[in-house]
């Protein structure tokens, strides 16, 4: 039964990360009509509504848990849905989908160092090699070492990639937060954090609009992105978040987040399928990141008793 549970958790994590690989491509299209602030607000408004429907369909909602832990849930919701959701797509607006997917793949390494900082669990010797491989891979994918062409057709995406990299800290913290609230089910943790984050996302969108960082979308903009947002809300947000949190709940944050390494693989596969073949540097960088994370997965796998 335990072996079946681990396999089902792994399958759920693979589904989630495959959906996120598509998210970067669909999200890039949506950003032509929505800025990252309003995009994130609309995305999680739809996601929160759908999550509440799922929660109510399961029976009585334990609102007392939300009231009891609302401060911690708000904190994780803002970091996971706000910081991660906005900054990753701000970065994507200045980068390309395959780069954003590789940036997400650095989160297992980030998790190791956050555990070192906050839990005093120092990374083992091999972690430094994993970090080195990951950094080299991200540098290759970002194009920072590539010189622009004379026509200006190829430029480095380092700014967008660094913004997205910083944004991933939010999702790592959100993932680790689930272990701090074991009394909540997967659907409760996912739904409550999304609901509590909405007011903050709304205020951020309004503030960004007032200072000129964002632009309130028109009805035409919303109609144009409706098909893309349907995929983003239903598949890449609600279903992916539930599947990811289910896998993390069963395998733990350190093991579960390693599956993020499938995101760049699926994103590059989608790029190739759409006829946009990745450059040699992008492929090499992606392989380095994936190899580093597979090494980490192998070395951190629980040993049988």
TrEMBL record:
Q: How does the protein associate with the membrane?
A: Multi-pass membrane protein
| First-listed, main subcellular location of the protein, grouped into a coarse class | membrane
Q: In terms of domain of life, where is this protein from? A: Bacteria
UniProt entry keywords in alphabetical sequence: Cell membrane, Membrane, Transmembrane, Transmembrane helix
Query: Where does the sequence pass through the membrane?
Result: 37-57, 73-92, 98-118, 125-145, 157-174, 186-213, 225-244, 256-273, 279-299
**Which InterPro entries does this one have?**
Diverse_Substrate_Transporter (IPR051258), EamA_dom (IPR000620), EmrE-like (IPR037185)
- Residue spans making up a coiled coil are none
Please report the stretch or stretches of sequence annotated as the EamA domain.
8-142, 159-295
Subcellular location(s) per record: Cell membrane
Q: Does the keyword Lyase apply?
A: no
Q: What is this protein called?
A: DMT family transporter
Q: Which organism is it from?
A: Undibacterium arcticum
